[in-house]
Write a structure and sequence with these properties.
Elements lengths: L28 E4 L5 E12 L17 E6 L17 E23 L11 E3 L6 E8 L5 E22 L3 E3 L6 E12 L12 E8 L7 E11 L5 E6 L12 E3 L5 E8 L1 E4 L2 E8 L5 E11 L5 E12 L11 E5 L11 E11 L5 E7 L10 E3 L4 E9 L1 E3 L4 E9 L6 E11 L2 H7 L5 E5 L1
Antiparallel strand pairs: 1-8, 2-7, 3-7, 4-5, 4-6, 4-7, 9-17, 10-16, 10-27, 11-14, 11-17, 12-13, 12-16, 15-16, 18-26, 19-25, 20-23, 20-26, 21-22, 21-25, 24-25
Length: 446
């Protein structure tokens, strides 16, 4: 799609019960939903935890290399009234994958059931020394409401927390409120290193407020890349809408002393005034600086809808050559293998940086447009780090190339970058024009 210039442990210490009480009677049905609309959950739902005593005999243990488990995700989702969500109503879930107690370096993949190990894709990459790391991605579910989690290499406990789901187009219960998703180029709107707020830690909270240029905006979810920068101790971040002072029993990002790390986060927000919204961040341990780049939002407006595709390793510079230090690559997404259509607005997947001899970051954005101040992944020298990503396709007027993804290596040494595509966001031309005009502006914190 040709674009107008864009604008700008599981708190792993906590163990949530997996067993849920029986579902209540479903409310009256409504008309069929538009396929690919988003349904945010009021609080994350833990659907899998290898530390849980509720698992079958012999399964409450760290996963091992080449071990796969099928997880029944949809049966644990509930509507606002507590009714069960049916598998045929869900096409994909927004899920946070957390690894804990790592004892051998490797990676974990959370993916569509029965896609196998080819092509090999990863969700969380981890070292051996007892790391705790989290990453949020969009994962298609099978017709029976399940997905697969695989320990591709290494050994770790694995925790899955669902934060929202996408509709299939089937008829929904009347109390399900759906949203469409606004995906934009990344833009840095909060940085505690430079705005006077300073680092956050020691179980303290900070409410972060932003506004949009549309006073009638009805936003329920902020989509961001959240980074813990220069942490002075180990800890984790939690994020929620701040309607209560009690955070959810899950984390959105786990960090270690001295290591910058980023994660894609879908955080519920609350409306505090016309066009003004707020969410709350809590940091345990640390303290750490917090950097936030906006990449979109979800709400009741005309925007984009999600379509799952078979997971596909679209970019892997190990097949060619490493991306040089401080250099940029633009690459077109083909329409082959149903990866893209004429109405594709953004590609969804997982970005991985395989660092060389220097710490740094990678950035994915609309190819052909000026590179924004933002980051997708952050990593230390010699480490592999992944983050979920939704990237708007761009147009380069100097070359007349369309459907471009831009990739930047922001480190001081050559590094490999990977992008595994698992879906796309579709938008009509009118919706795309509207999304290109939307923006956020930071207005304060408390």
């Amino acid at each position: 799609m040709k674009l107008s210039p864009a604008r700008f442990c599981s708190a792993v210490a906590c163990t949530a019960a997996l067993a849920l009480s029986g579902g209540v009677a479903a409310p009256a049905a409504r008309a069929a939903a538009t396929p690919g609309e988003y349904v945010p959950l009021p609080s994350p739902t833990r659907v899998f935890d290898t530390r849980s005593a509720s698992l079958a005999a012999g399964e409450a243990r760290p996963m091992r290399t080449d071990e796969s488990r099928t997880v029944d995700v949809v049966s644990r989702l509930r509507t606002a009234s507590g009714a069960t969500v049916a598998p045929d109503q869900v096409s994909a879930v927004m899920v946070t994958t957390t690894v804990a107690n790592t004892s051998a370096a490797g990676y974990v993949t959370t993916q569509q059931k029965n896609t196998g190990r080819s092509p090999a894709v990863s969700t969380v990459n981890f070292p051996a020394d007892n790391h705790q790391l989290a990453n949020t991605t969009i994962v298609p579910v099978a017709a029976d409401g399940t997905l697969d989690v695989t320990e591709g290499a290494g050994s770790s406990n694995v925790i899955l927390d669902v934060v929202g789901w996408f509709t299939s187009g089937a008829t929904l219960p009347a109390d399900v409120v759906t949203s469409q998703v606004d995906i934009t180029d990344p833009a840095r709107f909060y940085d505690s290193r430079f705005n006077g707020d300073g680092p956050l830690g020691g179980d303290r909270t900070r409410a972060i407020r932003f506004e949009t240029p549309f006073s009638d905006a009805d936003i329920n979810t902020a989509l961001v890349q959240m980074t813990a920068a220069s942490p002075t101790g180990n800890g984790y971040l939690q994020a929620w809408d701040g309607r209560t002072t009690t955070p959810p029993p899950t984390s959105v990002l786990n960090f270690r002393r001295g290591e910058n790390i980023a994660s894609f986060v879908a955080v519920p927000v609350r409306k505090v005034a016309a066009g003004v919204f707020e969410f709350t961040v809590r940091a345990t341990g640390g303290p750490t600086h917090i950097v936030i780049d906006s990449v979109g939002d979800a709400g009741r407006f005309n925007a984009a809808t999600y379509r799952p595709i078979t997971p596909w390793r679209f970019l892997d510079t190990r097949r060619t050559s490493a991306l040089k230090a401080r250099s940029t690559l633009s690459i077109a997404v083909p329409s082959a293998a149903n990866a893209r259509t004429a109405n594709t607005w953004a590609m969804v997947g997982n970005a991985t940086m395989i660092a060389g001899s220097s710490s740094g970051h990678s950035l994915f954005w609309s190819g052909g447009l000026p590179r924004p101040i933002a980051s997708t992944t952050n990593t230390m020298a010699g480490q592999n780090r992944a983050s979920g990503a939704a990237v708007v396709l761009g147009y380069d007027p100097t070359t007349a190339q369309n459907n471009l993804l831009g990739v930047h290596n922001g480190s001081g040494a050559a590094a490999h970058v990977l992008f595994d595509i698992s879906g796309r966001f579709e938008a009509s031309p009118a919706a795309g024009a509207a999304m290109a005009k939307r923006s956020w502006r930071y207005v304060g914190s408390r």
